[in-house]
Please model this.
Amino acid sequence: MTLVVHITGARPNFPKAAPVLRGLERLAVPQQLVHTGQHYDDRLSDIFFRELGLPQPNINLGVGSGTHAQQTAATMVGLEKLFDEIRPTLVVVYGDVNSTVAAALVASKMGIALAHVEAGLRSFDMSMPEEINRIVTDRLCDLLFATSADAVAHLGNEGVHPGRIHLVGNPMIDTLLRNLDRFDADRARAEHGIVERYVVATLHRPGNVDDPADAAALVKAMHAVADQVEVILPLHPRGRARLTAAGLLTHPRLRVVEPLGYIEFLSLVRGADAVITDSGGVQEETTVLGVPCLTLRPNTERPVTITHGTNRLVTREQLPDVVADCLRTGRSETWPVPPLWDGHAGARIADIIAQSLS
Model:
């Protein structure tokens, strides 16, 4: 019997998987959803299933937190047992989290066909765990679904056969456009008591928060931003203690809140003067919403958000001046959006998967 199994594990995976699940459901392709439990609390996981209309997972492995090796190993053990029981025809993985590479390794070694949604993204920074996950996963896949032309080029340069590469657009943007009318900036401002202009920040990458010196430099930069404009920062558990120890909470206009659900977070983003981030997905969402995005990283695996969007790479030292410029110039009324980021990527992926299964 044909069976497609989707592997999700962390917050970024869910908006990418939702359109593909809907597309395959439309084509009546038998499928199951597996949640590895890499993100396991309500604000990082369960709320996404409710808000995005995702079916409840058929299986939840409950892997939980841990080091990269612990998470990857526990996921591999759980998935090997599961795949042996249900024998999927195709395993679909998303993004670049530890669950992604774990599933790719297990499926490959068990001789199960493998598809990667968001294939070919490269930062060329091997200090990023996500970069390792991306490269390993793409080497093992039979179907590689790329969001942009640069990703297609990277895969070609790495020797991937052109017949395995499919430029389909960005399924996470499908989810954003499907929910666009639900992003109520005025309501979000009222709920958070925001009465003036504001920026939203999301910060959790190792290069910004793991080393105490980096954390201190980041806090200094964020305080300089808060001197100019109110900042609301939904703070990921990763790095919270180190940023707090560096004095993050001592500025009266820098407001730290718990991680937010999908609708609430993007409602805030939609009304912001700018977004400060080190996240990959936020670079894409701001590109479509037309919100200036200041990415606190030396590189990005999503350069199309710079050439065809609103994203800009900045250093911590540059950040206060760049924010001042954003506040002075305001948001543009028009902006470019990458090709095929049109709300139909999930359907394209589903059609290709169905054709491959037949």
